[in-house]
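Are you able to produce any protein sequence you like plus the matching backbone structure tokens because I've never seen that pairing?
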Amino acid sequence: MTITRRGFLSASAAVALTPALGARVLAAPLPREADIVVIGAGAAGIAAARRIMAANRKVIVVEASGQIGGRCLTDTATFEVPFDRGARWMHDPDTNPMIKLARAAGLEIYTAPIGQKIRIGRRNARAGETEQFLAALVRANRAIDDASRGRLDVSCASVLPKDLGDWAGTAEFVLGADFAGKDLKDLSAIDKARAQDRMAALACRQGLGTLIAKLGEQLPLALSMPASRIGWSNRDVTVETPQGKIAARAAVVTVSSNVLAAGNIKFMPDLPKRQLDAAAKLSLGSYDHIALQLPGNPLGLARDDIIIEQSSSTRTALLFANIGASSLCSVDVAGSFGRDLAAQGEPAMVAFAVEWLGKLFGSEAAAAVKKSSATRWNAAPFALGAMSSAVPGGQPSRKILTEPIGCMFLAGEATHETLWGTVDGAWESGERAAEAALRKIGALRDNVAAPVPAAKRRRGAAQ
């Protein structure tokens, strides 16, 4: 049976971006001065730089890799269709500025598939079995919500109902690994409960990485230009790069929480322990795509079908089939199992995906694989993982990361208290950090706060 509610779809929204397309990549020499320097050309960095330029202030974006996008990367070479190697979904079509910008740029935005299927062995779940799963998902989510209102922040796993039966493993995969890249035992109940509704999912037909790169056009970018050291004070910042130093009045730093905690960028003076501890408590989960080209639709699935299985262990995955009506399918692995599998390398990842498809659809289907490719975000040096999620007790760390550090302001999905783990949250955090930096240098006046919407959207796994 097809599930018409999108509870287990939301997790795929994690990581993010592509090549430079028409961006105004700077030729040498690198500018020596700017009003604000932005570290990182992912969604947060692009959003920050656009906001700074809109305020008519001089900005320079320095990016360690050779492409725009950070954790959003669209591969247009390996297969005949765009393949998002990182994040693939956006959310909140009524409020998300990226969707309006995408359409204005002539890119096609489409709604994620309404129906998803569950496999039990080599058959689809029956109507009654699907309802049992949805009921288990609702009960598990309610237990996490209830626990989030307690005095102490506990792990999601510790509060799950003990009588979820045959659906316990599937519920844990959907709410944990597939949602946040971490098993429920490693996930804060408060962080999970405060996550904003992500069920209204949309994608860009040309690829989410293509979109971010398009939005980076006309920005002054320096690619393959890692920031090795940042000197900071309450008055200014200095960013050291392979081509020299950039002096600025403020900086927006958008590197991932794992890169920050690993000390891959040196700070002078050192970052406060408060921020370093916060970054460590918001470590990135593991989420990877194993792309398989399956000509002739041997799985017998529809365009953009999404499949999970009834599983009693963490050794499971999510299938995104026939992407864009093509022969491309993506087997997504996440959490501790995904992390261990990715550590074994791409051949092991592809072997698991083929074996898993064979288990669900038969050996003939698995044997039809023509071409394959797998992501390994944990090994990507400028990301070191997929999306952030708070460990038990770590949810307050998100707010800590938004606190100014002299003239520096941190941004990225890890700094967003409700849209963490999403490109939407990264974009909004970049705009927010840019405005804080502009105020710091006197380019913006504090305005009266805009009215807060009367009702905050609720998120739920099976609505």
